[in-house]
Design goal:
202 residues, 2 domains, 5-stranded mixed β-barrel, globular
């Protein structure tokens, strides 16, 4: 399994990038969000990867962040969602937006992605919520010791962000320490983004 690639970008095209490592060019399927975030051709870049092996082909998918990679894997676990459709979803929506849409049951947001109809959007929401329940995350609640500030605990936006982060596999106990200094008046998406940044810096 190839976990990551670190090399020189030698080619880009819609939904794909080629990175040369040790004299070998690796073509990776990539989201538009990843393609926008990587440097120009001739410059160095690092991508987290996921390899898909089929009888007729081997495909490598590359992502600029572990959050996008993890969200991709979750989407791929849903019946009816293949690599290219998962790439399309994450080209239209960030992992934070996907998580927020699932936690809020917002199928309309998911249908913004090319190839996602209302029925598939509802299936994505249903299956990801079921996965959270199986992990026991949805049933977990925050107690007074979980967060330093009571205002953070009581904030509706913070609560929504916690539910959305559960979609990405983070339990309330994991995210609580990183939320104590966050302004609860920020938008839910901003809270999710700031929390993920703080987790990434640890």
């Amino acid at each position: 399994m190839i976990y990551s690639l670190n090399g020189t970008i030698i080619h880009t095209e819609p939904n794909a990038v080629v990175i040369e490592c040790g004299g070998v060019g690796y073509k990776c399927l990539a989201t538009m969000n990843t393609l926008r975030s990587i440097p120009h051709i001739g410059e160095k870049a690092m991508l987290y990867t996921h390899m898909i092996v089929r009888e007729d082909a081997v495909e490598l998918c590359g992502f600029s962040t572990t959050n996008e990679l993890n969200c991709f894997k979750l989407l791929m676990s849903i019946s009816g969602v293949g690599a290219r459709l998962a790439i399309a979803i994450l080209s239209s929506l960030s992992p934070e937006q996907v998580a927020l849409a699932v936690s809020a049951g917002d199928s309309k947001t998911l249908t913004k992605a090319n190839g996602v109809g209302n029925k598939l959007a509802q299936r994505i929401i249903l299956e990801l919520k079921d996965k959270i329940k199986k992990l026991g995350i949805a049933s977990q609640t925050m107690d007074n010791s979980s967060l330093a500030a009571s205002t953070v605990q009581e904030s509706g936006n913070i609560s929504q962000a916690i539910n959305a982060l559960a979609v990405l596999g983070y339990s309330p106990d994991e995210v609580a320490p990183f939320m104590s200094g966050i302004d609860p008046q920020m938008s839910v998406e901003k809270i999710i983004g700031e929390t993920l940044k703080a987790i990434g810096k640890k």
